[in-house]
Amino acid sequence: MPSSVFVALVGRPNVGKSSLTNYLVGEKVAIVTKKPQTTRSRITGVITKGPVQYVLMDTPGIHKAHNKLDARMTQTAAASLKDVDVTMMLFEPEGELTDSELTMIKALQKGGPAIAVINKVDLLDSFAALEQRKRQVADFRCFDAVVTVSAKDGTGCEELFTLLKPYGNEGPHYFDDDAFTDMPEKELVAELVREKALLFMRDEIPHGIAVVVERFKERPDKDLIDIDVDIYCERKSHKGMIIGKGGQMLKKIASAARMDIEELLGVKVNLQCWVKVREDWRDNENLLNTLGFAKP
């Protein structure tokens, strides 16, 4: 009998939610960088194993809001808990828990069910620290299981499917069995361009950028897609940095993005990137809507 399990992945920024989503899906559906707040909207990864379809919802990291965009991201993470059969909350293997994490745990104590996933065990030197974290998380008494994984090398990841399976509901699958995400190709393309900007640029600029695909057109006469992308930033000075001396930075971003986009689409791509200024868009409700950050 076919069944589906809807799973929310929540946790602090940079805890590895997107890396785990990509590992479990076996495809790159979520962009990954070492910078916090890389994930801005809810991203869906789909894995079908025989009769069971697992639908993973990778949410933005929970953190204190500094602007209207941050507030929408945190609302998206909170709203995801209501839509799922089970929540996987990811934790660092050691260190203090943040206020945002403790707030999320309180929400899980009222709601449920949930599984605690301690990630990054490949980085840990101290077995005692990990045992301490496991005890601490178990003491919250809102998790049905506490497991340890490494999204980087795959340790313990496959076992998560066995844990998640019992939370499923019988009924037809929501997605085609060969689907790996519900994100439109245009959105995936925009995210890949933003990922490269995050990877190559200094800390303060990338969070002030948004990427929108303005044209996505297959050529009728050959296997080629023309893609035009607008990169929006908040300051004129940022525009100069994104373009770089003689256009070098923009070329670097576009070239790296094009390679990933061609791999994703399985076809040659002609990618053109343009940089435009939209002052303080992260605090402008209308611009947030226009740039695709709808309220959850």
TrEMBL record:
Annotated KH type-2 domain residues: 201-279
Region (G5): 149-151
Localisation per UniProt entry: Cytoplasm; Cell membrane
Transmembrane segments: none
Region entry G1, spans: 11-18
Gene3D superfamilies: 3.30.300.20, P-loop containing nucleotide triphosphate hydrolases
SUPFAM superfamilies: P-loop containing nucleoside triphosphate hydrolases, Prokaryotic type KH domain (KH-domain type II)
Keyword set, alphabetical order: Cell membrane, Cytoplasm, GTP-binding, Membrane, Nucleotide-binding, Ribosome biogenesis, RNA-binding, rRNA-binding
InterPro entries, alphabetized: G_ERA_dom, GTP-bd, GTPase_Era-like, KH_dom-like_a/b, KH_dom_type_2, KH_sf_prok-type, P-loop_NTPase, Small_GTP-bd
Membrane disposition: Peripheral membrane protein
Pfam families: KH_2, MMR_HSR1
Region (G2): 37-41
Region (G3) residue spans: 58-61
GO MF, one annotated term: small ribosomal subunit rRNA binding
Gene Ontology, cellular component aspect: cytosol; plasma membrane
Superkingdom of the source species: Bacteria
Entry's Gene Ontology BP terms: ribosomal small subunit assembly
Stated family: Belongs to the TRAFAC class TrmE-Era-EngA-EngB-Septin-like GTPase superfamily. Era GTPase family.
Assembly and oligomerization: Monomer.
Name the UniProt record assigns to this protein: GTPase Era
Phylogenetic lineage: Bacteria, Bacillati, Bacillota, Clostridia, Eubacteriales
